[in-house]
Amino acid sequence: MASFSHHFSSMHVVWMACFHVYVLCALAELQRFEQPTKEDGSISFLVVGDWGRKGNYNQSNVAFQMGRIGEELSIDFVVSTGDNFYEDGLRSINDPVFEKSFSKIYTAKSLQKQWYSVLGNHDYRGNVKAQLSPNLRNVDSRWICLRSFILNAEIVELFFIDTTPFVDKYFLKPKHHHYDWRGVMPRQHYLSNLLKDLESALQDSTANWKIVVGHHTIRSIGHHGETNELKKQLLPLLEANNVEMYINGHDHCLEHITSSTSQIQFLTSGGGSKAWKGDIDQLNIGGVKFYYDGQGFMSLELRQTHVKIVFYDVFGKVLYNLNMFKQLNPVI
Known about the structure:
Order of helices and strands: HEEHEHEHHEEEHHEHHEEEEEEE
CATH superfamily: Metallo-dependent phosphatases
Strand order of the largest sheet: 1-6-7-8-9-11-10-12
CATH class: Alpha Beta
Helix content: 25-40%
Shape: globular
CATH architecture: 4-Layer Sandwich
Number of domains: 1
Radius of gyration: 21 Å
Largest sheet: 8 strands, mixed
């Protein structure tokens, strides 16, 4: 009897261990948020990146124009493409930089919606757990920042991806910078799981529009240029799963670049504050439809079969617009 009890107890421990592994695997899937469309079935939002400078470098001016355009479009939420707090992210959940660079800058009524954000490389130089902490929502309820997640807005799904860990130089040649890799190491395991989760989510998506949001560029002629690691590891997955748009920051400019191998539109919105780097990759301008080396932001208005994209400068002037059309996805 004692032997049987010991055997049963051991089996119970093994079963419970397997159960916990299963639960952890299930929880590893990308977290989802839901956003209803307007009564007419449309959705609209603004995109801004590389902004967190306590209002300096025209951040406050860009924020003012975002508020004005946000009211005109009756936006449903805001997307941030990362590098939210310069120069080195947040130090803690009590860091006053959060309010000085976010809460006290984006004060317009139209911007009092959820802000969905990815992390940038500058954010990784701080206390990443602080910026990811849900406790920040006690300071400002708008703030939603995760490593990677999904926003389902019925006609469109946005897949927010943590791109910083893909970039080799942050690990191999960090110079004098310190990066907070807690939650990322071992790196290859983290990236492999992320790509698997993204692929599964893209394949399961029934939305008519699929948009992937990351901090780093895939295509760009700006200061940082293209990110080879993303071109190699992420881009094939996006092309294989009929993603219409990849939206990023990192380069402090506004861009639209088309693809020669797929329907993907590469859209950069990284002009939230400091910009005007002044260097352009003239050798890689194939597919470039629009480039503005200055401050500003982007808006998207989506319907089932139509998307209107507009880029604005720091004065709210329309610099460029793009219209995309497609048929409804067939009901399976």
